[in-house]
Write a structure and sequence with these properties.
This protein has two domains: 126 residues, 2,3-Dihydroxybiphenyl 1,2-Dioxygenase, domain 1; 118 residues, 2,3-Dihydroxybiphenyl 1,2-Dioxygenase, domain 1. It has four helices and 18 strands. With 267 residues, the protein is α+β, with helices and mostly antiparallel strands. 44% of the residues are buried. The radius of gyration is 17 Å and the shape is globular. The strands form three sheets. It has an eight-stranded mixed beta sheet with strand order 3-4-5-2-6-9-8-7, with helices on one face. An eight-stranded mixed beta sheet has the order 12-13-14-11-15-18-17-16, with helices on one face. It comes from Streptomyces longwoodensis. InterPro entries: Anthracycline_SecMetBiosynth, Glyas_Bleomycin-R_OHBP_Dase, Glyoxalase_6, VOC_core. This is Bleomycin resistance protein.
């Protein structure tokens, strides 16, 4: 992730305020809040504290006392997919939300206040992929990266990138890095020359039951050990470990079906 930094020490990279457009937070809405906390607590070592009451039953996950992600509870009458959602930083969530609408996206939630934590909106791009927008106040976003259990990367998985890359460039001011000739529909989005997110067009390999969606990668120290824990705790391995651009990667789902990637950085 890219953003202004505080002191990091030896326990990962600490963050201050995130530059606009930077992925700054990830949140999961699940049906069983307690069971979901137990799963991720075991896999990533997270502890939990209550979140803003305006968001209903919601918990903030901590590592060494620093916030890394959020988990909320879906209302029983809301039949929404259980999925991780990245939040992109904004200095003015209302203006960003209006730009989303003008560029062909939609805003499904907000903008609204989350107590003194900040202001948020949840929207979707023209292909239907859901993302959040976060204007931090007391809560700036993920407080630490670079260690086991922290978000490492976010990537949009879609049919083809040409239809949506201009949307993200216009709304969030991203620059586009030239694709690798070996993977021509894999676009890296940058801010001030620094990679912050990716777009990956997979064509007909996109699951019909999911459609375009954002995938969050979480860093782990040992991907094989993490996979053993995932399956032991009721999750599933969706793709076996393989070497990718960011390290050794595997895709899994938690017991409720939320998909995420685990990445072990290069040694």
């Amino acid at each position: 992730m890219t953003g202004a930094r505080g002191s990091a020490g030896h326990n990962g990279e600490a963050h201050a305020r995130y530059a606009p457009g930077t992925p700054c937070w990830v949140s999961l809405m699940a049906h069983g809040l307690t069971a979901t906390q137990e799963f991720y607590g075991a896999v990533f070592g997270w502890e939990f504290v209550p979140g803003p009451p305006q968001l209903g039953p919601y918990a903030r996950a901590l590592l060494d006392g620093r916030e890394v992600a959020g988990i909320g509870q879906l209302s029983p009458d809301r039949h929404l997919p259980v999925a991780w959602t990245p939040y992109l930083a904004s200095d003015d969530v209302d203006a960003t939300a209006e730009t989303v609408r003008l560029c062909g996206g939609t805003i499904g939630v907000g903008p609204l206040e989350a107590a003194d934590f900040g202001r948020l909106a949840i929207g979707s791009d023209p292909s239907g992929a859901v993302f959040g927008i976060w204007q931090g106040a007391a809560h700036l976003g993920t407080g630490i990266t670079g260690v086991h259990g922290t978000p490492a990367w976010n990537e949009l998985v879609t049919i083809e990138t040409a239809g949506v890359v201009k949307f993200y460039e216009t709304v969030f001011g991203y620059e586009r890095r030239a694709p690798d000739p070996a993977d021509p529909d894999h676009v890296t989005l940058c801010l001030d020359g620094r990679p912050v997110a990716g777009l990956h067009g997979v064509g007909t390999a996109l699951p019909r039951d999911r459609g375009p969606h954002w995938m969050t990668y979480f860093q782990v120290t040992d991907v094989e050990a993490a996979l053993s824990l995932v399956t032991e705790l009721g999750g599933r391995v969706l793709t076996a470990p393989h070497d990718g651009a960011h390290g050794r990667v595997a895709t899994v789902s938690d017991p409720e079906g939320a998909e995420l990637a685990l990445v072990e950085g290069p040694r």
